[in-house]
Amino acid sequence: MRQHSGIGVLDKAMTVLHAVAEQPCNLNELCLRTGLPRATAHRLAVGLEVHRLLMRDGDGQWRPGPGLAELSTGAGDSLVEAATLVLPRLREITGESVQLYRREGTHRVCIAALEPPTGLRDTVLVGSRLPMTAGSGAKVLLAWADTAVQRAILPDAAFGERVLTEVRRRGWAQSAAEREPGVASVAAPVRDSGGAVVAAVSVSGPIDRMGRRPGARWAADLLAAAEALHKRL
């Protein structure tokens, strides 16, 4: 349930942020999701854009902005802090986009990301909320989620229980054109000091470069990065 502070404009601004974080949207969609009048939704979104908490892409859709990542750098999240030490090396090895996801309910949230300096890339902004129904990161997080969460998500997923069993067996997941057409990815689970899976570290990029079985190329490097993150937790 969304929290309310009693400060109207602040609560409305947070409603806009949450709506865009769930999925990029245009102004009409933003009004439908938030229930706000068009003028109010537009004014708040533009204000959040000024502060770089939202941004608009080439299609005019609102997306989470880079200011969210900048604000989170001092939040004291040990997992994010570990990612600042591990993800740059993973990006250097693979030459592809790298991300770290954490599950929140039935979504996965990108809590750290780096992109290659040149060439085509799979851009996932920090703070983005993606569905758990497609992609290697989703498979990893769902494979070690509790049964109730799996039952809630699997009916709409692009994969089934058999795939999750295989992910648990080999310790990593891969996907090709599941989350986005033309994008492939491979992911591995990150465990805390007690051995529980708390995140998924992922490499993603164009299928033309990564191939339709990216695990054959990058799984070992993902597992090494996951282990490095685990040691820092």
UniProtKB/TrEMBL annotation:
- GO biological process assignments: negative regulation of DNA-templated transcription
What one GO molecular function would you report for this record? DNA-binding transcription factor activity
Name recorded for this polypeptide = IclR family transcriptional regulator
InterPro entries linked to this entry: GAF-like_dom_sf, HTH_MetabolicPath_Reg, Tscrpt_reg_IclR_C, Tscrpt_reg_IclR_N, WH-like_DNA-bd_sf, WH_DNA-bd_sf
Show where the HTH iclR-type domain sits: 7-66
Residue ranges of the IclR-ED domain? 67-233
According to its UniProt entry, this protein's organism is Rhodococcus coprophilus
Please provide the record's keywords in A-Z order: DNA-binding, Transcription, Transcription regulation
Q: Which Pfam families match?
A: HTH_IclR, IclR_C
